[in-house]
Design brief:
The protein is an all-beta fold and about 70 residues long. The protein contains no helices and 6 strands. It has a single domain, classed as Roll (Pnp Oxidase, Chain A). About 0% of the residues lie in helices and about 50% in strands.
């Protein structure tokens, strides 16, 4: 299933998908991985970052609700 079918999106420098509706994005280049129990920790280097909608208020989670 194509999860991006029907959505407007572009790609960042690394080829990662960027959704224009997002408030902002970070584009990362994978630098290393570390085992973390039954998970893997990924360490990335930021190669690009941008706020797409500076006039918008970001969604913030505080205690037990969003505002």
């Amino acid at each position: 299933m194509d999860k991006f079918a029907g959505l407007d999106w572009t790609t960042a420098a690394t080829g990662a998908p960027i959704l224009p509706q997002a408030y902002a994005f970070l584009d990362l280049k994978l630098k290393d991985t570390f085992p973390a129990g039954d998970h893997t920790l990924f360490l990335g280097e930021v190669v690009a970052a941008r706020i797409l909608h500076p006039q918008a208020q970001p969604l913030v989670f505080k205690k037990s609700d969003f505002f």
